[in-house]
Amino acid sequence: MKIALTVDGVRREAEIDPGECVMDLLRRLGSTSVKNGCDRGDCGSCAVLLDGRAVNACLVFAAQVDGSEIRTVASLESPAGLHPLQFTALDAGAVQCGFCTPGMLMTALDLLANQPDPTEAEVRRALAGSYCRCTGYTKPVAAILTAATLLREARHG
Amino acid sequence: MAESPKFTVVGVSERKVDGRALVTGKPVFAGDVELPGMLHVALLTSPVAHARIRSIDTAAAEAHPGVACVLTHHNTPAMRYTTAGQGAPEPSPYDTRMFDTKVRFVGDRVAAVAADTLSAAREAAALIAIDFEELTPVLSIDAALATGAPVIHDEDDCLDVWDAPHNVVSVIGAKVGDVAAGLAESAVTAETTIETQYAQHAPLEPHVVLSHLDPDGRLVILASTQVPFHVRRIVARLLDLPIHRVRVIKPRLGGGFGVKQEVLLEDVAALVTLRTGRPARLEYTREQEFVSARTRHPMRIRVRLGAGADGMLQAIGMDAISNTGAYGAHGLTVLSNTGSKTLPLYNKAPHLAFDGRVVYTTLPVAGAYRGYGGTQGSFALETAMDDLAERLGIDPVELRLRNHIRTGETSPIFEELGEGRKGTPQVITSCALEECLRRGAERFGWAERRARTPGAGALRRGVGMSAHMQGSGIALVDMASATISMNDDGSFTLFTGSTDLGTGSDTVLAQIAAEVLGVGVEAIVVVAADTDLTPFDTGAYASSTTYVSGKAVELAAMRVRDQILAVAGRILESDPTGLGIVEGHIEGPQRSVSLADIGKRSYYGPDPAQIAATASFVPESSPPPFMAAFAEVEVDVETGLIRVTDFLAAVDCGTPINPIMTEGQVEGAIANGIGYALTEEMQFTVRGRNRNPDLARYKIPGAVDLPPMTVMLIDSYEPTGPMGAKSVAEIGINGPLPAIANAVYHAVGIRLTRPPFTPEKVWRRLREAGV
Amino acid sequence: MSIANVSRFVRPPDLGAAVAAVRAGAIPVSGGTDVMLHPPAQAADMVDLTVLPLAGIESYRGGVRIGATTTLTAMLGDPRVAAIAGGVVATMLVEVGSPLLRNRATIGGHLARGRLSDVIPVLLALDATITWNDGSAHTQSLAGFYREGRHRTPLIITSITIPEPPARSGSAFRKFSRTAFELAILNCACRLDLDDRAAIAAARVVVGETPAVAASMNDVEVHLAGRPLTPEVIVTAAQMAAAAVPARSDERATAEYRRVLTEVLVRRCLTEIAERLA
Fold first, then answer.
1. Which of A11, A94, B37, C183 is surrounded by the most beta carbons within 10 Å?
2. Residues above pLDDT 70, as percent of chain B
3. Counting one residue from A and one from C, how many pairs have CB atoms under 8 Å apart?
4. Which among A55, A107, A114 has CB closest to C104?
């Protein structure tokens, strides 16, 4: 079957298998930042924004995203530079191997869009389905809190 | 302690040199690459724990649409090898075949199918008909050692197995003095037996490999590996290729923790490519990562301690049996480290003994896993030390302070226990464990928290601690080399064979080079882990990269610096010995010259000549990092649920080259260790099948589950290391298990000896103890 | 996880067409997170329920009515859901799966599964009713729906209604698991309505993950009715629940341990309610 969707602002048309998941579709379309860590919604490495909310791309049928808008981590950087979530991750040492990073950043983007001023506990809960085996989460959580502050400051001028 | 010199780039938390690519999601992992005409390979693995293959029929699979190649024991090399990616000759037995006529665990390789699509490959693999003659599975250490136990390796061509008819892979021992006499003379003794579980590394990126032929027909393997040079050597031998006809490239790696120190997929993809001429991609699913990849060796360890009334240790005896699973990869060396990474810590004891055996079972294969046997040994030793402290009436911190090794001291174990053979005598050249213990205890509030009563309600609090050492590379075995060449803009390219598996070691090495060369880290281009481009490095294991590879980089950079200063001396008409590079410039008596000028001159003259140097480093010792770990737990005595509520690690790793990354290594290792202590366990059915091969049931810690962690980097300077550094990747994982167990004892008075400490298990122990 | 055996993905024009397809053997798909993990053994059609106007939350007779394709996240963010029964629904939802799952999983899909659920005990404790269509529309208590095994028959859930408990009522929920992002080994939801003499007018004590589908502990509820909410009554009720719970052993826990957890969780839920109502 054929679907049309928007990936990182670019309209794409794709012939899909009715049982195909969004993760496989996106990787097939070249969005390899969407990582396959478990293929069953346990790890969060494939998280993308689907119509504004972060989901496990491995657990969404491609057949259900016709007409939808998907954002991957590739859309975060702007001509002005890295997104605060990206550069705070680098500065705080939140990235080790970086395999979980794209999914974790998209999960954090969803959090900050809905809760711009989260507590540390809220950040940790937001990452409940986003596993990282390298960092122990201390630095990713700190980076997200710093990014939240920067984004709030930017919004208030 | 030597006075620490002042550094400019070293000791600074620089951003990762590969960080930008990672946060923007660039295609930098092996699994991100797709090549035209690429085949997808599916593995068929054994559904039974122990069986002989009577026959295997691949006709239907070969006829399946899209199938290009089917591999089984009928058409693949029969030679024995080890999957362990260690230096040659590997200290692991040659007991493995690419595809064997016998299967020895559920998940053992039976066949591989390459097809145009992954689904076609999987469908075809399901069409392979195998007739198994099932044999009795051997599912525990005791079953393996029982009289009349089935012989797991009954083939006649395996090499370096100690006693295959009795399933014993290796035995190892070390003896100093007389432990029995020492115990008899001791005022107080303690004895602990622990038994650890099967655990898996669970890197977020499963193993993946992509092979193809380059235009000259050479085999190119893009692999998620910690050991590209060992992969090249092992695959070349297996596939009967000259080593120079194989190129192995490690791109960005999505975590390893030891599980990628094995050649698990590369040989299969490579053989598919050789047979078909087409690129071949092979990737473990998460389930295969659990079922077929490597694990941590389960061990049963008994520790006996004896001490005088003053708390001075008289005797330490450690007996260990290690279950290596179906194949002996890392079996001998991991068990060696169980003793060698623990016993030297308390070098005051005159009587020491280590007795170890490694046995085969028909369970998943154990391998290298962060901590490498030291984790299991530490748990036994530090639990026994906690018990001894109580029997002596001495505070646990104080007991360690009285007994631990100091700078300038040695332990006979360094010489007695090496990597599966005799070791190397070694004098400790830096040790700040005393400061780790004292300052860690102070910051943690040890004395106050220890004096607190645990409470009488459902939730009881307690604190526990432990002390640890690890190593920095393997003395007189590891070799690292680095080449640095100067570019015509005054920047440098660092060619290193070392393998950054996500730790940030490429950045650490760039910082070391930048420090020597008087430039910022941005002036160092890192080219790493490509066997065609970079000089040899044994790879990323045994906490070797910062210390061993870092030293090679430092030496190469010093040679390049000398070449630069020689040219600068000519330009500045000054004696080079008085010159130095500061912020990209060499200051002469009258004027200065920039590195950019020298770089340009080195290419285009006058007197052009490439400025470049290569250096190798073979460590003569393996200076241990040290750590004091402190944990606070809350035990729900009604349910047995343990929550870790606080964790502090005070670490001596010499100079932290990049402090934030150093902390990150320790924090990540602690998280992994907490999972190992509380939840992580591969579970098996009575037939040896893994019951929890996914991340929903094999439970690694998430962000909500972990306590606040404090990592203190204690001042220390290792004179033999690059810029005073030791390595730090492994030691952190050793802390949680004993510190948590000791804290639970403090809280509720039960000694937990069989991790993971899951609620139901703890509740049963609490009930038995009448808590 | 791309799955095999999906013949077609049907976008039904209306509920009637969707029900007809399901009655003909098609599998209803809402968020799809559960269907993906349990692919059909034989070729089957999928019916996409998200194209139907089934999402949304509205006030209904003092309670809330939640459309079947409403995501758990939408429920969690809704002030009416947050307000109901002292916030016990929201408290529970935070512990369900992960945000990534809650953003996709829907209440209808969750209830259709009928097991592995923290949601069901709470909805049972709150006397929720479920509305579904198998060719005609039906509404019945959620408890009855599961008791009759309706979730295993071809139908489409269209909404769930949660009534607001009476004024003097308290509810609590406890989940017990090794880690946060994990299925419960056992869970428990309780609701107590007090009369004007502060005695228990009505009680709901629901235990889930026994590991059967969650169910009310009727004997315990009957025992509680009419009694004062004292520590002794709570302890007795918890012990009765432990004795009566239909616990079984599975890979997550033994039956014996589940009984122990039942006693602890029921006691803690009731104690929490008592403290809140005090």
1. A94
2. 99
3. 102
4. A55
Is it the case that residue C153 has pLDDT exceeding 90? yes
**pLDDT bucket at B419, cuts 50 / 70 / 90:** confident
Last residue of a domain, one of A75, A95, A117: A75
**Range 706-735 of B in CB contact (< 8 A) with A:** 706, 708-709
Angle between helices C255-277 and B759-768 (to 10 degrees): 90
Bridge partners (DSSP) of residue C60 are: C63
Residue range A69-77: mean pLDDT, rounded: 98
Residue C168 exposure: Cα atoms within 13 Å on the Cβ side:
13
Q: Which helix (H) or strand (E) holds B335?
A: helix B331-340
pLDDT of residue C278: 87
Supply the pLDDT for residue B420: 76
Q: Which domain holds residue B456?
A: 299-474+621-768
Check whether residue B578 and residue B648 sit in a common domain: no
Q: Does the CB of B118 have a partner CB in chain A at under 8 Å?
A: no
Q: Give the CA distances from residue C229 to residues A7, C89, C121, C272, in Å, rounded to whole numbers and listed in that order.
A: 57, 23, 21, 11
What does the alpha-carbon distance between residue B665 and residue B607 come to, in Å, rounded to a whole number? 46
Give me the residue label for tokens 């103890």.
B769
Taking CA atoms, what residue in A is nearest to B672?
Answer: A133
Look at residue C59 and give its three-state secondary structure: strand
Q: In angstroms, what separates the C-alpha of C165 from chain B's closest C-alpha?
A: 31
Distance of residue A84 Cα from the nearest chain B Cα, in angstroms: 11
Q: What is the pLDDT of residue C38?
A: 94
Chain C: touching chains (3 or more CB pairs < 8 Å): A, B
Does residue C118 come out as left (phi exceeding 0), alpha (psi in the -120 to 50 range) or beta?
alpha
Residue-range definition of the domain harbouring residue A109? 84-155
Query: Tens of pLDDT along C197-216?
Result: 999 999 999 999 999 999 99
Residues B687-694 have a mean pLDDT of 98
Same-domain check for residues B271 and B342: no
Nearest to A54 among C35, C36, C100 (CB): C100
Considering only the top CATH level, what class is C169-277? alpha beta
Topology alike, domains C6-51 and C57-162: no
Structure tokens at B374: 């030291």
Q: Which amino acid is at B764?
A: R
- Please indicate, yes or no, if residue B128 is contained in any of the structural domains: yes
- Taking alpha carbons only, the member of B331, B399, C1 closest to residue A20 is C1
At which residue do the structure tokens 């969750």 appear? C110
Torsion angles phi and psi, residue B576, rounded to 5: -60, -25
Do B319 and B409 have their domain in common? yes
Q: Are residues A144 and A89 in the same domain?
A: yes
Interface list for B 175-234 with A (CB within 8 A): 201-206
Say how many CA atoms lie within 13 Å of B179 toward its Cβ: 17
Instruction: Give the minimum alpha-carbon distance from C80 to chain A in angstroms, rounded to a whole number.
Output: 18
Best B119, B641, B682, B694 member to test C by mutation, with max C CBs in 10 Å, is B641
Judge if B580 and B670 occupy the same domain.
no
Residue C217 confidence (pLDDT) above 50 = yes
> pLDDT over 70 for what percent of chain C?
100
Q: For B743-762, what is each residue's pLDDT tens digit?
A: 999 999 999 999 999 999 99
Could B704 and C180 be called an inter-chain contact, meaning their C-beta atoms sit closer than 8 Å? yes
State which fold the C6-51 domain adopts: 3.30.43
Question: CB distance C46–A54 less than 8 Å?
Answer: no
Q: What secondary structure does DSSP assign to B155-216, as a single string? A: -S--BS-SBGGGTEEEEEEEEES-HHHHHHH-SEEEEEEEEPPPB----SS--EEEEEE-TT
DSSP-assigned states of every residue in B235-278: HHHHTT--GGGEEEE--B-S--TTTTSB-SSHHHHHHHHHHHSS
Instruction: Name which of C179, C251, C261 is nearest B691 (Cβ-Cβ).
Output: C251
- B672 in contact with chain A, both atoms CB, cutoff 8 A: yes
